[in-house]
Structure of Rhodanese domain-containing protein:
Amino acid sequence: MVKTMDRETLREKMESGEDLLLLEVLGEASYRQGHLPGAVRYESMEQVRRLAPEKNALIVAYCSNFN
């Protein structure tokens, strides 16, 4: 199921230590310029399956930083 999440909700989840997978979906150069703490750059669905093996895992994909 795909849902949207606003910045404040994401911030609250990150600050509370909720278990989630943050995926930066922009290119490598963008990722190197800056990304959310703990985020990984999306490379493949295999990577996602490896990093979040639980079917009900919270996966947050974003395409820009939240400064």
Observations:
- The CA atoms of residues 12 and 18 lie 9 Å apart.
- The chain has one domain: 7-62.
- The chain is about 35% helix and 20% strand.
- Residues 7-16 form the longest helix (10 residues).
